[in-house]
Amino acid sequence: MHLKKYTMLLQKIFCLICIFFVTIVTAQKNTTKNTSNVSQWKKEVIKSLDEKQKTAQEMVDMVFSFSELGFQEIETSAYLTQILEKNGFTVERGISGIPTAWMAKWGNGKPVIALGSDIDGIPKASQKPGVAYKEPIVEDAPGHGEGHNSGLPLVILSAIEVKKIMEREGITGTLVIWPGVAEELVGSKAWYIRDAYFKNVDACIFTHVGSNLGVSWGDAGNNGLVSVEFKFEGSSAHSAGAPWRGKSALDAVELMDIAWNFKREHLKPTQRSHYVITDGGDQPNVVPSKASVWYYLRERTYEDIKNMYDDAVLYANSVATMTGTKVSHQLLGTAWPGHFNKSIAEAVYANIKTVGLPTWDAADQQLARAVQKLVNAPKKNQRGEIIDGLATKLDTLNGPVEFSMGGGSDDIADIAWNLPTVVLRYPSNIPGTPGHNWADGIAMATPIAHKGVVSGSKVVAATLLDMFTDASIISNAWDYHKNVQTKDIKYRSFVEPTNPPAIHLNKKIMDQFRPQLKKYYYDPSKYKTYLEQLGIQYPQIEKKAN
Ligand SMILES: [Zn+2]
What we know:
By secondary structure, the protein is of the alpha/beta class. The chain is about 40% helix and about 15% strand. The strands form three sheets. The chain has a six-stranded mixed beta sheet. Strands 8-9-7-10 form a four-stranded antiparallel beta sheet. Strands 6-11 form a two-stranded antiparallel ribbon. It starts with a helix and ends in a 13-residue tail after the last helix. Mean pLDDT is about 95; it is low at about 20-35. The site of zinc ion (ZN) has 5 residues, from loops. Zinc ion binds near residues 146 and 208.
């Protein structure tokens, strides 16, 4: 008996030793095989993406010409998903109850890597590209004054090239492509998380237009927010004949705004809060029975955002009591403060150094300097670097901010608090523009945007090849995610199970402008570029005399 047990034990130990060595040998074989192969494949994708300038130009120009606002990205989503389907991706449309949202998948098994970017535009930002003066394509219409026309073309280009190599070399893994719908309304990503669309995703590379090739990790220093609309209801009356019989909903809105503006004195300097009156009544001689106000309340932490949110609801209820009106509120959007993954950022940055900035020509630089003059661009950026034309020196890899006075928000943070995520910024725009402005659209359908997209697509493609062949990037990413990023801070969404996505937003505006914008949709069968279609001589520094 004893001898038998002893033999069995020896056999077990022998087996374990065998498994151990086989594992080591396989791992070593994979690494040696991979390092040389991967660098070869990277060279190959970089070269083939260099040859995709025309495809990049066509996709970027096309989405630019659609000029669609958040939740109304109908043409944009139809166009992009059709390209993905043609390239073998399976598309699930209407995710999270958002008609313009979708998720495209290709591949098999792990790792599952998601690639995303925003697709919506800015109100009243319609602007001709390639000209250094204000000239809308359609007066007062929306436009790509944030450059969201370029990010999905970028990731689609990378995914298609990487897919070719994965198919040829039998590399296991799944690619997921998804749009940031209504980013300007921070209206979709927390809903995707709530509805578990990212449950089986191992990592996410997001891209956002910028004016350099860069990536960062850790606390990004920006604010999270809630976007909430308060709707008041009173009763109408003749404003002159019987004003004492009216209960003005507009009074409630104005008192709410006054109360909040007093509140500012007692808020932290990191907060940002702003509002627009979305309904102020119809005409002065009718006491407004309905009125509404829409707030963005931003802060650096979940707790501080929550406090502002609770106070705003309290104020709304209080002014409703004061004015004898009723109030209801709806959460229209939300975002967490940004925090991005270290391991993936390092992998991305290594490829940024290999790829480098695009080669700008004299025309690109001429337009950039003319636009900087036009918008009265600051002489230096926030890091003290001189702004003069397009970027010619690569950004460094930036870590967590030490201190921040707060700022904008992006709901990519809600993805990043749930799985390892980074945001690659790529140089498709001109440094020093004001943001959310018509002037931010000038470069976005020109060679500047096209070159920036191609350089960004090379970085994404090279990083994907790294991540599909070196499991340590994703395991280190989860280690950072679990043991650093979410060690003390736990994600809690402001989105409740009952909150619908705010898909009604922007519908009226798009219904009004789409027929006019349609006349200017890019037609690549007739014109080499959108600039050519619009009759623009690039760069057009001065307005042509009529
Ligand atoms: Zn953006």
